[in-house]
Each structure stands twice: as structure tokens, then as C-alpha cells.
Amino acid sequence: WGDGARGILAQSTTSEIIPNQVQTATDWVQVSLGTFGLGIRATGLYVWGPNDMGEHMTGTSLFTTPQEVLR
Predict the structure, then answer these.
(1) What order of strands is seen across the sheet that includes strand 44-49?
(2) Parallel, antiparallel, or unpaired for β 63-70 and 37-41?
(3) Beta carbons of 16 and 4 less than 8 angstroms apart
(4) CA–CA separation, 21 vs 23, rounded Å?
(5) pLDDT for 23-63, tens place per residue?
(6) Does residue 1 carry a pLDDT above 70?
(7) Residue 40 CB: number of other CB atoms within 10 A?
(8) 27 and 69 in contact (C-beta within 8 Å)?
(9) Nearest to residue 55, comparing CAs of 67, 43, 42, 71?
């Protein structure tokens, strides 16, 4: 839950006042939200949210859904 204004909640740019599942995947091992989102699944490392300074290692695009950056 929280401010999804910049895609931090991995569901477009909407905000939520109650806990929500991160997308439809059910195999998240760990998720951390702050300035951007970072999640670990059995298949790899995923990021989402603001990427103004290239913090996702994928250029500078805003991601409103989890993007795999390491397998």
C-alpha cells in the first residue's frame, strides 16, 4: 500500500490505502519498496518505479510493472 504516483506499487500509477499483491505473480520471495521497488522471485531479480538516474541498470525509463534485471 502507499503512494503509487511513480509506479512504486507496480500497478500503473495508482495509490492504495490497503495492502495489495504485486502484480499476478505469487512466487515473490522478498519485496522491498522505497524510492523504487525491488523484488526477488525464483526466476530472478525485478525492479519497478522511478528510474531517473538509471538505478534499474536499464536506461532511464519509468517502469510501472516489474522488469527482470538479473536472472
Answers:
(1) 28-33, 37-41, 44-49, 63-70
(2) unpaired
(3) yes
(4) 6
(5) 777 888 988 877 778 889 988 999 887 777 666 666 767 77
(6) no
(7) 15
(8) no
(9) 67
